[in-house]
């Protein structure tokens, strides 16, 4: 259940522009609102100049010094920036706290009511959004917060991109004609966040899993939907969750709904890592051989439908409440240590991952 938060939570920092010093945009969650807060550099070539007064002395300003320090740190080759990663993170964190402190009274004034307990996917993904700017006050010795009109500097980031119409057509999905329920974010009540953008949700009283797109892995949700649609149209019963619905926001298709698989352990990796004697009866040799056969069989069936698992690992296997293995997560992603990068996304890669799962299950091959 979502709990009201009394402190702004920094969710993201972006740098914009291409000038000498970049602007930085801090995004905060507060009381269910989203606050996109800019520290503007007039040299950022992305609109920073429009945000500062004509006689503005950037170099003398507090934000000027902060942005110059940040830009200096984040400037350089990828290797150079990597070596400074810790320092950058520390500075960003510190700045996030400073910016949050400056903006807290404004955030409180604009969003003074804590989020309701039954938060919907709509509340979470598309909160009321305000644009703020943090700028040195006219006396020149303190930072102040001011509200900006409209979406402002470089706009609000699109964090949950929709699957393109072209891709949906490629999957043979016609939203007008499909018999798969198409569900809107306000109908989806969030119960618990399981991981990243995966929640346990309730829709019309039924518990399900909801997964939505994220900009950093733009293609993942489309890949996953395509896999589930193939399984569904093959009308075969596989040891995978059932596709229960498609999530359509005002932007388009951004997520999928899956049948909830009741389970005790977060995934097979977590179960195998348990050393307590309490679970030894849950991982007997007999059970492990059964799971090995179920996983191998499921992978063969997926392959026969032309679906690759790709992100094959014990994290993506659930043991359900009947003690049977269920295969999850067709969104791609390659986790270090499972499939060699040059084999990823091939049959050979899936075979390599399967061998590692068998090894983790200690079943011999
Ligand atoms: N159908 C389901 N029923 C019950 N639990 C599920 C179901 N699908 C996923 N989960 C739980 O959510 C976790 C994450 O799901 P999944 O692996 O599909 O997402 P992910 O893409 O790995 O997320 P991230 O991208 O954040 O790593 C699983 O390990 C499992 O604990
Ligand atoms: Mg996963």
TrEMBL record:
InterPro entries for this protein: Kinase-like_dom_sf, Prot_kinase_dom
Gene3D superfamilies reported for this sequence: Transferase(Phosphotransferase) domain 1
An annotated Gene Ontology molecular function: ATP binding
UniProt-listed Pfam families: Pkinase (PF00069)
Residues covered by the Protein kinase domain: 184-365
Top-level taxonomic group: Eukaryota
Protein's UniProt name: Protein kinase domain-containing protein
């Amino acid at each position: 259940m979502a709990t009201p938060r009394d402190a702004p939570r920094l969710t993201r920092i972006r740098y914009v522009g291409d000038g000498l010093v970049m602007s930085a945009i801090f995004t905060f969650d507060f009381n269910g609102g989203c606050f996109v807060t800019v520290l503007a550099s007039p040299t950022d070539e992305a609109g920073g100049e429009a945000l500062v007064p004509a006689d503005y002395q950037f170099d003398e300003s507090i934000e000027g010094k902060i942005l110059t320090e940040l830009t200096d740190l984040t400037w350089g080759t990828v290797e150079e920036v990597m070596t400074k990663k810790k320092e950058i993170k520390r500075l960003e964190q510190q700045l996030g706290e400073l910016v949050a402190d400056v903006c807290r009274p404004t955030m409180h004034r604009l969003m003074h009511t804590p989020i309701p307990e039954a938060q919907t996917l709509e509340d979470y993904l598309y909160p009321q959004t305000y644009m703020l700017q943090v700028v040195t006050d006219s006396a020149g010795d303190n930072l102040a917060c001011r509200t900006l009109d409209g979406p402002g500097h470089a706009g609000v980031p699109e964090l949950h991109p929709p699957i393109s119409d072209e891709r949906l057509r490629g999957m043979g999905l016609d939203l007008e004609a499909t018999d798969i329920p198409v569900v809107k974010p306000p109908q989806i009540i969030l119960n618990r966040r399981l991981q990243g953008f995966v929640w346990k949700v309730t829709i019309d009283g039924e518990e399900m899993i909801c997964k939505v797109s994220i900009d950093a892995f733009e293609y993942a949700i489309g890949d996953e939907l395509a896999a589930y649609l193939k399984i569904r149209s093959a009308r075969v019963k596989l040891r995978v969750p059932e596709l229960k619905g498609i999530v359509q926001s005002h932007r388009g298709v951004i997520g999928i709904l899956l049948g909830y698989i009741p389970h005790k352990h977060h995934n097979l990796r977590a179960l195998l890592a348990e050393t307590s004697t309490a679970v030894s009866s849950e991982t007997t040799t007999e059970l492990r051989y059964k799971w090995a056969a179920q996983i191998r069989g499921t992978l063969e069936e997926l392959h026969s439908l032309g679906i690759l698992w790709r992100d094959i690992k014990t994290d993506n296997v659930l043991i359900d409440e009947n003690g049977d293995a269920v295969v999850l997560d067709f969104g791609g992603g390659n986790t270090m240590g499972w499939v060699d990068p040059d084999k990823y996304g091939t049959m050979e890669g899936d075979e390599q991952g399967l061998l590692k799962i068998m090894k983790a299950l200690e079943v011999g091959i």
